[in-house]
């Protein structure tokens, strides 16, 4: 989590900062083999040099980006969880609960689906 310390300190809203820290900490504990890193000014996690999941803070939500393949694979579950989404990210409103089981499935899917991936992004 040390790698995210400066990023978290720049989040002005204490509730947003706490929520973001909680989620990043959860990913770190649940998936200790993933490498936390900052890239493109966003916290993300990688596995053997390939992108697994990233996060970004917005005014009304925390954005979760599992790549397009993850969005397609979990589109029904994302809608069922009550989250708005685009082709590339899920928006978790600050005042909504975090569906950690969905987050876990998205991360596990990307780890599995990208096990043989030798590039940062999917081709």
From TrEMBL:
Residues 16-111 form the YdhG-like domain. Pfam families: DUF1801 (PF08818). InterPro entries: YdhG-like. This is Iron chaperone. It comes from the Bacteria. It comes from Cohnella silvisoli.
